[in-house]
Amino acid sequence: GITHTVGSLSTKPERDVLMQDFYVVESIFFPREGSNLTPAHHYNDFRFKTYAPVAFRYFRELFGIRPDDYLYSLCSEPLIELSNSGASGSLFYVSGDDEFIIKTVQHKEAEFLQKLLPGYYMNLNQNPRTLLPKFYGLYCVQAGGKNIRIVVMNNLLPRSVTMHLKYDLKGSTYKRRASPKERAKALPTFKDLDFLQDIPEGLFLDGDMHSALCRTLQRDCLV
């Protein structure tokens, strides 16, 4: 499905992103025996939906992601499932080359992301140092009466980077302490209350970096 939608985009001329592009949903049916538009495959029939394809093409280009590299990362090797699912029950996968994170999302989460796209677009153009996640694509596979929605994002924690200490900070203290089970892991993910306890003086940044970081965060909060 991703191969088809990215490939078909390459035949369409480059143009400015319009407001209606954020709300487009393209849908194509993939019968098992193939069709004039789709190849034959070994799975059951399925339908593949692509959300805001032109807008996400723009985002990928802005982030320096070439179509061939995107397809190679996602489609040349099986995805690797990560063991820790999110609190929402989402499943996480990483591409074989460690470049992308693929996350399953619920209908409301996908709908919310699509509504955010116009503001996200404006923020990327006005705030190039944004710390918001880099979204590369939003898709849905319909098969066997089920809808599986996935979002493709940048991988901030590649396996090649050695992690010494890891905190998942939400800006809240309610139930924000790592569980005993989590602490028993070789590389646990600590939370907000752990951070306040372990690093009570916080992080020290030089003045210019602190000011730039605060400006970026303030702009990101407007999306």
UniProtKB/TrEMBL annotation:
Pfam family, one: PIP5K
A GO-annotated cellular component: plasma membrane
Main location group: cytoplasm
GO biological process, one term: phosphatidylinositol phosphate biosynthetic process
Chain ranges of the PIPK domain: 1-223
SMART domains, per the entry: PIPKc
UniProt keywords, alphabetically: ATP-binding, Cytoplasm, Kinase, Nucleotide-binding, Transferase
Molecular-function GO terms, alphabetical: 1-phosphatidylinositol-4-phosphate 5-kinase activity; ATP binding
Keyword Cell cycle (UniProt): no
Protein localization: Cytoplasm
Identification of the protein by name: PI51A kinase
Gene: Pip5k1a
